[in-house]
Amino acid sequence: MTIIQTGSIAMLSFVIGDYAAEVFNLGPFSSSYYAAATVLFLTAINLRGIYPSSRLQKSLMGGILLGLLVIVFTGLFSQGNNELVQEPANGSGVVLGHAMIFVLLTYGGWTEAAYLSAEVGKSRIDIVKVLFYSIAIITAVYMLINFSLLKGLGLPGMSGSEAVAADLVSKILGQEYVKLISLIIAIAALSTVNAVMITGARTNYALGQDFSQFRFLSKWNSTAPANAFLFQGGIALLLILIGSFTRNGFITMVEYTAPVFWFFLLLVGLSLIILRRKEPKTKRPFIVPLYPYIPIVFCATAVFMLHSSLVYTGIGALIGVLILLAGIPFLFFHKQKPIKTEEVNEIL
Question: Which domains does the chain have, with CATH numbers?
Fold first, then answer.
């Protein structure tokens, strides 16, 4: 509620702001203005219910496809860049750890479908297929996009860019096309922010049902969990304000979310191993392939990324960790609400 989902909303809103500023610059804090407007606009849409927001999501998918196609074809059919191949930098461990924070960030979001499984009426098998297909498609698209960008700009051109797609189009097609591609990329990012908002508010709603201190979040009006959306939007706006006074709002939000994100993924992996040992006879609808090797590799990767996100980042990571620690007192005052038999049957 305070870090991963809202931090992602703020981070992606800064992406929209960076590209929107290429179309129409509003001054020194142009990116922040657009980021805040994004949060306000999408919160208002989602307050009207899942159907208006889902219709918006479907219409924005066209922007995603168009943006990806433009970038891929522009990069692939360019003459290439003679700076594409570089010597490895000194301190390759540091470079790898820092780079992977941003690389693996790209794969985030493929799990969002699971948060909506109850509302869309999918069975567990369908959701598993969706998750597997999603990560396969995202990986293929990510590799294709990066190959296109590397071919068109080279590694130095990519690393020095604040809006890499716009710079690629400017170099290959000309400056007159920059505003068009920037607008398309902003629209594509808008759909991602909308998806995170939809799932984030519903996890906040569930939090309100379990924690009496946040019971106000569990109020569902006729169309949506309104309090959860408003509270989520307020936190995201506060994070945008914080990011506005750092060297780069997007990078600050990546640093803010990364340590907590990888810490909780590590806990997920450890929980799987612990529960398999504590409850070996429990019937499990989905069996992890190649157990325990995959969970062990997963946990080792999470430890490496957690270390990287703490050591190779700035003040954003410190703020995220402090806010995480501030949540500990809530656990001491939390009383677990007993689950009634009829509630269990309803869940099943």
Answer: 4-347 (1.20.1740.10)
